[in-house]
Amino acid sequence: MSYKREARAGLKPWLVWLVVLLLVATAKPAQSQSFKILVDTDLGFASDDALALLILLQSKNVELLGVTVVTGNEWRNQEVANALRLLELAGRSDVPVYPGAEKPLVNNIEDMKLRERIYGDTSEGGYKGAWRERGPGPEKVDAPDGEFAQRKPEPTHAADFLVAAIRQHPGEVVLAAIGPLTNIALALAKDPEIASLTRSTLIMGGGIGTPPEFNFWMDPEAARIVLRAPWRQLILTPLNICYQAPYTREIAAAAAQGDSPIANYFKETQLKTNFPNPVASFMYDPVAMLSLLEPQVIKRTESMWLDVNIDHGPSYGATLFWKEGQRPMPGSRKVEVQFDLDYKQFVSSFSALMKKPVRRASGPPPR
């Protein structure tokens, strides 16, 4: 507003500037956004899921309410042991771990083998996770790095915990799902209202125009249930953007500098192996998790209607999608889909988090 307009409005210029100065003087400094987070994962001890969990543990803006576990990369019981031990190494044994579903809602190994005898590989890259040939069974659990954590898993099922935690903090919880979506679907079946009570939901899974992505491929019915739920905000990190984030030895080496517990984890678990094995070649789950904490690493998103193919044919588990102006399948909902990544900024932010002093637990000792 100009001085002339102020005068016409009956305002004295000096009074306007006084008000402005008072507002500036009393304004509170901007603070980083904080999050109450639930993470649902199929965590391998040396995996992109582990890197994603370390991102949360290292961020001062995250209150991690708990970790829920679902069969995916490995069988559930092994993943529970992995999560507990990783939390212990990171000095965060205060974070509880809840075992969830051991098997998908409908899909199973026998049906998968039958489909693939007919159609060939039906998953992206032929990756089978816990269902790989000659893999260990669901009851075999090895010490992740030669040792088991002191803390034990919680007796509550993951789905029950998810419902209770969201109900306890209505409108506050961010749900980050970086494995097959079985636990989330079970929680929705128990209490459909949790979708509208969740602050936002982030899923690493699916792919726009790609073969079936592993998390959706392992439990397509669960993925469909979750995508159709009435979340306040639903964000998808698909294969498309993850392929822009290769995991390099240089990234691991930067995180391994120093003698912190996290640096030692990278030295012993990441760099002493036939890198990048057994870790994924791309930073799938870290892209999802860091996009939550630092949205500026995402350069482009697109709002699309999404659904999941559940016809048990060669495209079982594939992501179905419709853009603006197209007619979506009845029941499908709009999702914010991430497409373009600022890889340089992503690597810089990830490395900075890994080099920060470890955030030790301030709560009670392990049970």
Secondary structure layout plus pairing:
Layout: H1 3-8, H2 13-26, E1 35-41, H3 48-58, E2 62-69, H4 76-89, E3 97-99, H5 109-119, H6 158-168, E4 173-177, H7 182-190, H8 194-197, E5 200-204, H9 214-218, H10 220-228, E6 234-237, H11 239-242, H12 249-255, H13 261-270, H14 284-293, E7 298-308, E8 319-322, E9 333-341, H15 343-355
Parallel strand pairs: 1-2, 1-4, 2-3, 4-5, 5-6, 6-9
Antiparallel strand pairs: 7-8, 7-9
How would you describe this structure to a colleague?
The chain is α/β, with parallel strands linked by helices and 367 residues long. The chain has one domain (36-355): Ribonucleoside hydrolase-like (Inosine-uridine Nucleoside N-ribohydrolase, Chain A, Alpha-Beta Complex), CATH 3.90.245. 38% of the residues lie in helices and 15% in strands. It is built from 15 helices and 9 strands. The protein has a 9-stranded mixed beta sheet, sandwiched between helices. Helix 3 links the parallel strand 1 and strand 2. It starts with a helix and ends in a 12-residue tail after the last helix.
